[in-house]
Amino acid sequence: MVSSTIQFVYNNQICNIKNPDPNKTILEYIRNDLKKNGTKEGCAEGGCGACTIVLGELKNSKIIYRSINSCISFLPTINGKHLILVENLISKNNDLHPIQKAMVKFHGSQCGFCTPGFIMSLFAMYKNYKKFDKEIIEETLSGNLCRCTGYRPIVDAAKSLNNKKDNDHFKKDQKNIIKLLKKINNQEIEISYKNKKYFSPKSLISLKKIIKKNPNSYFLSGGTDLSLEVTKLRGEIKNMISLNSVKELKFIKKNKNFIEVGAGVSLYDFQNVIKSYYLDFYNILKRYGSVQIRNVGTISGNIATASPIGDTLPLLLSLDAIVKIQTKNFLKSIPLNEFFISYRKTKLKKGDFVYSITIPIYKKNYFKAYKISKRFDDDISTVCASFNLSIKDNKIVKARVAYGGMSETPKRAISIEKKLNNSIFSEEIFLKAQNMIKNDFSPIDDMRASKDYRFEIAKNLLMKFFYEISTKKNIRVN
Ligand SMILES: Cc1cc2nc3c(=O)[nH]c(=O)nc-3n(C[C@H](O)[C@H](O)[C@H](O)COP(=O)(O)OP(=O)(O)OC[C@H]3O[C@@H](n4cnc5c(N)ncnc54)[C@H](O)[C@@H]3O)c2cc1C
Ligand code: FES
Ligand code: FES
To answer: Is any atom of ligand 2 closer than 6 Å to the C-beta of 49?
Structure first.
């Protein structure tokens, strides 16, 4: 069934919007149409968290609560979900929610402007976890900026929620919400608003038909890159095809040799799977944007943008990952190493989309990755480096070295790899290899760093990798 009406649950009832403007953000809808002004606009580019709201989603008949940046999420993506705003936290008898009580008690509301965003991030944490340690609290708050007073009172408020029984009114209404969500979950969406079109197919077959009829459309995954065309550049996206509801793209396949991640998997879901294979991949993902960004952003979106500073890309390159591309007629696999052509250009032809990414598992290899950015959390890389080394009898059998932020595309350092391959694993060979960096890259000066800095840091990261594996110790500042 195809519908032009999006449906979602709000305030314990199903709401309908027929043919909404696909370029309208959820934030604009909340503030201008619903007239709920608790949710704030700070940066309008996903960076400050003032606009954080929570969407409830059904997964195996349970509700998963995800915090998102409403300023960079298009309204139609709300379809099939439960919209929760800061105004909804208070109970019918005007009792503050436990999160709000804790924020009052610990003086966590300081400037006030950013507070609703903090509360909503904490709300998602409160609903999704039973206990919150330092790591969970810090991760939860990584996408909410406080630039006036400090995080301590907010962290104290979060800590105080530990071991409190979740008995809020959402818990009490849960059965009803699930019933409502089940009622609305089955529609494919096709919106036509003035000169704009938006499609949200549910199956690969429908997706292919839509692409055939609308070959000039943009694909929408998490929208954490695409939406900025509208919110920041004030442009317009005429035709959009959302990949978010295509069930065949939401998969993670694992066996002893590889992991295959479908295009529809969020970075947040992926981070928890990759953790048991490559800890440093997980560590980099934990510093990728924020929870709000990773809750919607996808690895396929990161690959398709081909950004020179896309964080997963050097890691995937060093692991010899394979991209599966769905073309008009068939599914083809190509090494990621051959996928990037030039600045933000890939081998994708019109109508092609990234179907999945396959990551080989090298159990015996040394794999490490480092991200250098100005801020630890919620910042993009100046340089990102990834190393994957197979050593046998103290000899380097295969070296993979890849960098982001060093050229117009993320790239492997072929000269460094050549120098390392078939050599004795030693400081001497790494010192020689690091000097090959100028053969592989010619970085630029920009606001994040000078080209000399980039060269220096790239060389140092290679040596850091060597010292970390030879001393079996992580040399990290957290
Ligand atoms: C606040 C903020 C922080 C960020 N922090 C980081 C960071 O730390 N590290 C980092 O690397 N990036 C970061 N980004 C950039 C952004 O998150 C990435 O580019 C992201 O991976 C894009 O994925 P997405 O699913 O949101 O893609 P979208 O925005 O939906 O799409 C991006 C582009 O790819 C195309 N596309 C999407 N999916 C597919 C597909 N399956 N096949 C073909 N084309 C497709 C779209 O048409 C669009 O052109 C940040 C962005 C924001 C707003
Ligand atoms: S307004 Fe800053 S993240 Fe949305
Ligand atoms: S409490 Fe709002 S910016 Fe610090």
So the answer is: yes
The residue whose CA is least distant from atom 20 of ligand 1 is: 302
Name which of 72, 67, 10, 66 is nearest 41 in CA terms: 72
Report which ligand 1 atom has the smallest distance to the Cα of 218: 47
Q: What angle (nearest 5°) sits at the alpha carbon of residue 316, between those of residues 315 and 321?
A: 155
Contacts of 82 (CB under 8 A, 6+ apart): 8, 9, 10, 55, 56, 57, 63, 177, 180, 181
340, with CB counted inside 10 A (0-12, 13-18, 19+), is: buried
Please choose from 141, 147, 155 the residue to mutate so as to test ligand 3's pocket, defined by most ligand atoms within 8 A of CB.
147
Determine if ligand 3 sits within 6 Å of the CB of residue 423.
no
Ligand nearest to the CA of 378: 1
State in Å: Cα 119 to ligand 3 middle. Answer: 12
User: Are 370 and 464 a contacting pair, CB within 8 Å?
Assistant: yes
Contacts of 437 (CB under 8 A, 6+ apart): 413, 415, 416, 455, 458, 459, 462
Distance 308 CA to ligand 1 centre (A): 12
Q: Which CATH superfamily is domain 1-189 in?
A: Beta-grasp domain (3.10.20.30)
pLDDT digit string (tens) for 8-26? 999 999 999 999 999 999 9
Taking only the tens place, the pLDDT of each residue in 277-307 is 999 999 999 999 999 999 999 999 999 999 9
State the DSSP H helix or E strand holding residue 211, giving kind and residue range, or none if neither. helix 204-213
Percentage of the chain exceeding pLDDT 90: 91
- pLDDT at position 447 is 85
Q: What are 68's two structure tokens?
A: 């998102």
- CATH code 1.10.10.10 for 366-471: no
Q: Where are the chain's structural domains? A: 1-189, 247-360, 366-471
Cβ of residue 111 lying under 6 Å from some atom of ligand 3: yes
Q: Cα–Cα distance between 416 and 402 in angstroms, integer?
A: 10
**Binding pocket residue ranges, ligand 1, CB within 6 Å:** 45-47, 72, 218-226, 243, 263, 288-289, 293, 297-298, 300-302, 304-305, 307, 310-311, 348, 353-354, 380
Spelled out in words, what is the top-level CATH class assigned to the domain 247-360? Answer: alpha beta
